[in-house]
Structures are given as C-alpha cells and as structure tokens.
Amino acid sequence: MMTTDGQTPAKVAERLGDDEIHVWRLAYDHHRGREPLIHMLAAYLGQPVAAVQLEDSPHGRPTLAGAHRDAFAFNWTHSHDEALIAIARGISPGVDLERMRPHPKALPIARRYFSPDETALLESLPEALRDRAFLEIWTAKEAVLKALGRGLAFGLHRLSIAGSSEWPVLGRLEGHEAGQWQLHRLALGAEHIGALAWLGGPRRVRLWTLAGAP
C-alpha cells in the first residue's frame, strides 16, 4: 500500500498524534469484505495482518480486541467503490461516506426522520441542490451515531445538524450535550460526500489517499 504522494501507511502511522485524526480514502471492492481495513489496522499497529483481532460491539461496530485492544480507536465506512477509515487515539471517531446520486424521496424521508429545521432547509432549496444537502445531513447524522457506537436504530430524529454545508455542527443529540461534539466535513470532491464526528475537543484532521482510489 502506498499513498498518492509516495508514503506507506506504516510511515504515516508513526506520526499519529494525540491531537489528530487520520482519515484514509481508498478504493473498495465489496468482495474483499474487511480485508482493506485489516491491512490498514496492521500498518498502524506495526504488526502482521494475522495479529489483528477484531470484535463487534452489541450494535455492530468493529473494535480492536486482544493485546492491542487499547492501541487506538477506528471506524470505517464504504459506499459503492470507495471507503474511508478513521483512526485516532483517546476518542472514538465516527465516519460516514455516500456517493452523490439522485434521491427522489429525499423530502419524504426528511419529513419522517429529520428534525423540523432540517426538513425546512431541504424544502427551501431548489431541486438541483436538494440531493447534495440531503446527503450532507445524512452523513453528518450517521457519523455521530457511529461515534456514539450506535446505528440507525438509535433514531435519526433524536439528533439534528445545524451550521453550514462546509462547517456542520451538532445542534441536538438526545440524552447528550451536543456542544461537546465535533463535526468535520471531509473534502472528497463532487462525487462523494463524507463526514467525521467525535466526542471531545477540536483535533487536526489529516486526510490521506491510497494510490488507486478514485
């Protein structure tokens, strides 16, 4: 594995600071399952692939297990032919990715599962801008739920996203102090939309791309 600027993930891993989050962008083939994730985790652990042990939380989030359980936290997501992996120490990051595509049912979904403010925003937009705005809200919500260690079953209506498209903020999270959370929009170009979330103070987000990713 090599980054687009000629570095290995193992070399990048050596520079993971306690005030950073590393996010990796890579090509993905669903036939490979968790193989790309395992290889990346091995690079950060400085261990062979066979040494990586994972276990799933009650809500399905994979975590490190065994001797390396507390080395760092990670989260990953994939959409079509691309994936993102987020790695950090001291926090549990949540990351979500969607490929840009038409969503003819965006408004019905929003009216059922989004907050009134989120729905009103989507209703106010011209149709040409609505699909992207819908996915920006969706990925931000998903990233928070993943960082929380929960899935969609927690309920999209129990949190709301405020702020702007470029600088989203968590406006409300039922049962939690929303102001203690961070949201970060990932710059992935016109074809993909990604969001990163974590509970804690601001951190430097570093985005790396593996050679071969779109």
Automatic annotation (TrEMBL):
Residues 94-190 form the 4'-phosphopantetheinyl transferase domain. InterPro entries: 4-PPantetheinyl_Trfase_dom, 4-PPantetheinyl_Trfase_dom_sf, P-Pant_transferase_sf. It comes from the Bacteria. GO terms for cellular component: cytosol. Keywords: Transferase. One of its GO terms (molecular function) is holo-[acyl-carrier-protein] synthase activity. Pfam families: ACPS. Signal peptide: none annotated. Gene3D superfamilies: 4'-phosphopantetheinyl transferase domain. The keyword Transport does not apply. One of its GO terms (biological process) is lysine biosynthetic process via aminoadipic acid. Belongs to the P-Pant transferase superfamily. Gsp/Sfp/HetI/AcpT family. PANTHER family: L-AMINOADIPATE-SEMIALDEHYDE DEHYDROGENASE-PHOSPHOPANTETHEINYL TRANSFERASE, PHOSPHOPANTETHEINE TRANSFERASE. This is 4-phosphopantetheinyl transferase. It comes from Dyella jiangningensis.
